Amino acid sequence: MTVTLKPVDAVLVGFGWTGAIMGQQLCDEGLSVVALERGPWRDTAADFATGFAQDELRYMWRHHLFQNVSYDTLTIRNNTSQQALPMRHLGSFLLGTGVGSGGVHWNGQIWRFLPSDFLTKSHNQQRYGRNAVTDYDLTVQDWGVTYDELEPHYDTFDKLCGTSGKAGNLRGQIQPGGNPFEGPRSNEYPTPAMAQTYAPTLFGQAAASLGRHPFPHPTGNLSQPYVNPLGAQLGECTYCGFCEKFGCGNYSKASPQTTVLPYLMAKPNFTLKTECEVLKVELTADRKRATGVTYVDSAGQEYFQPAEMVILSAYILQNVRLLLLSGIGEPYDPSTGKGQVGRNYAYQTMSSVNVFFDDKILNPFIGAGALATVIDDFNGDNFDHSGLGFIGGAYVAGMVTGGRPIEMIYTPQGTPAWGLEWKHAAARNYLRSFSISVHGSCMSHRGNYLDLDPTYRDTFGRPMLRMTFDFTDNEHKMSDYLTDRAAEVAKAMNPREIKLNRRTGSWSVVPYQTTHNTGGAIMGDNPGNSVVNKYLQVWGVPNVFSMGAGAFPQNAGYNPTGTVAALTYHAAAAIKSQYLKAPGALVQA
Amino acid sequence: MGRFAPPLLGLAAAASLGLATWAADQGPALPSLPAHPLGAVTPAGLLAEIIPDGAQNAEQLRRGQALTIAGDCMSCHIRDGGQPFAGGLGLNTPFGVIYSANITPDANTGIGAWTNEQFYRAMHEGVGAHGENLYPAFPYPWFSRASRADDEAIFAYLKTLPAVKYVPPANHLPFPLNIRFMVKGWNLLFFRPHDVQADAGQSAEWNHGAEIVSGLGHCGGCHTPLNFFGAAKSDQALQGGDVDNWVAPNLTANARTGLGAWSVDDISEYLRTGRNARASAGGSMAEVVSYSTSLMSDQDRRAIAVYLKSQTASPDRAPGTPDPGAMRRGGAIYSDACASCHLENGVGQPRFFPPLGHDAMLQQADPTGLEHLILAGGRVGPTATRPSPLIMPSFAWKLTDDEVADVSTFIRNSWGNQAAPVDASKVRTLRRRLGLQATHYTANSGDQG
Predict the structure, then answer these.
(1) CB count, 10 Å around CB of A48?
(2) How many domains does chain B have?
(3) Between B155 and B186, the higher pLDDT residue
(4) ipTM strictly over 0.85?
(5) pLDDT of B120-152, one tens digit each?
(6) How many CB pairs under 8 A join A and B?
(7) How crowded is residue B386: how many other Cβ atoms within 10 Å of its Cβ?
(8) Which of A219, A506, A544, B342 could form an S-S bond across to A538 if both were Cys, CB 3.0 to 4.6 Å?
(9) The CATH fold of domain A3-331+339-579
(10) Is there a catalytic annotation at residue A516?
(11) Is residue B316 part of a domain?
């Protein structure tokens, strides 16, 4: 028996970064907003206070803050010739759940995409010819939104987080010490860059000796205490080395909890309901408008929450699945190329180079989620790709996120994975090694997509999401080229030895790579090439908005959160300035 | 008269204008937004609602609202999860648990059927609507200093708030204290109702501060020590008291344990935001800031600060010398458990994680507040300008009584602090009183299977 609740102006499905930002924006306009989060309430003191936050076994290996895949998972395969099977253990990506979700256990790496990243198709086609964007069955396209349109919203997110960093391009003027390749920023970072420890410093010196342009990684692990425009306070990072996969006990990592919730939770027109899983977006008979959502609480009671607007603010895999389950848009068919929902699923192409010294003690346990010196010389289209046979690139970072005792012990090439020899190698190298990260882009491809699994169902009887994904030759060529560039910097540091961890073969769901899944509900300039318009509004169902990295038509060589947040603010601005005055399509099809 | 309607944006009107042009080419219009009313209001939001000019007796209601804020009525008259002013909060007094009353305008369970005279007698004489004596946990010894006009303004304001039907639980008081008649004897001994007399030798600001501090603000209710009968020791006004297993620190000019080192601006900032460069408001003071001082006017806060700064320093007692073993052990515990926020040298992160050096709260003669904070943790009162509810986690599960005592002794005698060593047996007693003997896990302590 479904209970119908009192109607609200907007319902938020999922309550991580995009839900928190959209909730704040809409509540400030006086709208009544209900957020439905499938996971539990989480706050610093109860869930990850100092004293127990730094517990690698509990949080990293036993997945304390992540989605429990014995309740909900998805099926995985590399291509359509395979039978997809459920992912029964988290591996390649670590799905979030609960209030704040991935925003709690991220590293705090706050990037902007390059201006040319938003023009992947037209820019590369113009510079390298048509084949550059169609070889390997690539299906890349332009975003329908430009860097200049998003810049004020990137800036707003920086001010929300108090991002620590050094500008490299301030209103068109290249700044010493920053990233000279970045798009023009309207303002310097709100707080100065973090102090760099020994390993990132060595990396920066080596990179500069090769003529590269090193700069400090922009970070949401704050270099100094900060009060954001909502009055929320963040502390100074203590470099404890437990960032990604962990909550921050010191209030020094930007998260919904530290930046938005203190302000938003006090709003009388905001309601948060936790442990409430949305089953479906309900539509009118003509399917041109959502009437609200159906959800089920932890006791199993089903509710219908009527709403004037439905904001899908869950993780991309949930947003795409809800669109498919609700019959919104046409599912993508890779054999015909027709349909948009699920199309252009993409990921991130990660590789690394380990560096081992004899004569340098690096103390890797002094770390932070985004503590790194970075070069961006080989990202996006910052370099000439002529004759290289790929598009895209990566940032290369001498990064010390921590020296966690189980996850982060690097041993040289040829060391056995266990036993006495491993122990000796671990003891010898722990303090004297670190990893250079190669954070590569991932272009979209005709065969990579998301749809509903025909076989496997979740505990509510709904089809699971099915992921069909593999790296293409474009990604392998890009990754190999970039790993070689990282190795050059590694060698310039004069270490005893290095170890290259290339990205080879098919994508595997087993080893952890990164939780940067993108696409499936992509944005574009017309309903024939996308699910949502530039304001993340679903084509044809104008009161449904789909947030998050699902909107990326392909993924750039950066961490996605900054762009996810900027797109959310951009959507919120259009809702506030246009949609509320005339609720309907913000872009004419 | 119902609750004042919150100021709604003029979006509905704007929407209908926009729709006229939009509808022509797009078919049926969606409803305009916002289409649905706002939800429940927060306690601080309720107190901060603007009384519109058009309201009948707006002037009196605004005065009543300001006085209700100054009197911090909300802190006691709301229970965890309850409605504003519906009462039911259990106050742990040395004599037993006394539950606060429902002071919403509900006719049967609140004060909706009271007259002005009845309300005045409660405030001024500590007598309830039926002539029964109220327990002095209701601070009528301070409220009696409010004028009749002020009481009428408060009453008028309270009557505009949402009525809540709720009967608080019965008090848990042992015989003979459960006989209200006993309070008459107490009143005879300790209660001196009177109106505030302005001190012509002091500034208007000082007199205004005195009116708040020793009147409705009832600061002495916690910050003045109590005698055996629970009455304020008037000769030790504002020299520090204890309340519900917390210590309300000395507010006199004592440089070590009082406000001697604080400026008027320090005090004003603390009252406005719940934090300043020296300290953060925790324990019961967190609520005083959230529901009272942060909502006051700048003039009120400044007047309080000016008045408090004029208090003669309490006599200082020479603290004992700590045992070097306790200092050494405590220092090691500090590095492990405390330094990640308060930093190794105790400088903290001002306005965020309080600095610990030269700290008045830490040097109070009675270390109960510090022990309570370490055992149970604490929360800085969120305010409109600083909404982050910064929390110090509980260490009851992690530190033994001896360790709490050692680290407390260390903190009380480092970075310029000097205070008597802490006794582990006192920590044990407090731990029992707080119900923290057994290891407490958070809801999330277990690992996923």
Answers:
(1) 29
(2) 3
(3) B155
(4) no
(5) 999 988 888 888 888 888 888 889 888 999 999
(6) 150
(7) 24
(8) A544
(9) FAD/NAD(P)-binding domain (3.50.50)
(10) yes
(11) no
Domain-embedded: residue B314:
no
CATH number, domain containing residue B239:
1.10.760
Number of H helices, E strands in chain A: 12, 22
Say if residue B48 is in the same domain as residue B103.
yes
Give the burial string for A291-315 (b: 16+ CB within 10 Å, else e): bbbbbbeeeeeebbbbbbbbbbbbb
Measure the CA–CA gap between B102 and B112, rounded to whole angstroms. Answer: 10
pLDDT tens for B71-117 read 999 999 999 889 999 999 998 887 889 999 999 999 999 999 999 99
Residues of chain A contacting B387 with CB distance shorter than 8 Å: 230-232, 262-263, 266
B278 Ramachandran zone, left/alpha/beta (phi>0; psi -120 to 50): alpha
Q: Look at residues B276, B309, B342 and tell me which one is the last residue of a structural domain.
A: B309
Cα distance between residue A126 and residue A133, in whole Å: 10
Residues B172 and B56 in one domain: yes
Two tokens at B147? Answer: 């004028």
Is A258 near chain B, with CB under 8 Å?
yes
DSSP string, B336-371: HHTHHHH-TTS--BTTTB---TT-TGGG-SSTHHHH
CA A472, A477, A483, A489 dihedral sign is negative
pLDDT at B60 > cutoff 80:
yes
Beta strand segments in B164-290, E? 241-243, 246-248
Q: In which domain, by residue range, is B166 found? A: 43-190
Tokens standing for residue A362: 């690096």
Q: How many CB atoms lie under 10 A from the CB of residue B249?
A: 27
Which residue of chain A comes nearest to B377, CA vs CA? A45
CB spacing of B34 vs A309 below 8 angstroms: no
Q: Is A559 exposed, middle or buried (0-12, 13-18, 19+ CB in 10 A)?
A: buried
Residue contact A581–B45, C-beta within 8 A: no
Pairing assessment for the beta strands A372-375 and A349-356 based on DSSP bridges:
unpaired
Q: B405 in a domain, yes or no?
A: yes
Instruction: Note whether A584 contacts B444, CB cutoff 8 Å.
Output: no
Query: Side chain identity at B74, as an amino acid letter?
Result: M
> Nearest Cα to A251, choosing from A230, A216, A274, A224?
A224
Structure confidence by residue, pLDDT tens digits, A84-93: 999 999 999 9
Do B112 and B244 reside in the same domain of the chain? Answer: no
CB B405 within 8 A of CB B423: yes
**What confidence category does residue A439 fall into, taking pLDDT thresholds of 50, 70 and 90?**
very high
Distance CA A145, CA B207 (A): 62
Distance CA A169, CA B226 (A): 64
Final residue belonging to a domain, choices B280, B309, B338: B309
**Residues of chain A numbered 69-108 and touching chain B (CB < 8 Å):** 70
Sequence spans of domains, chain A:
3-331+339-579
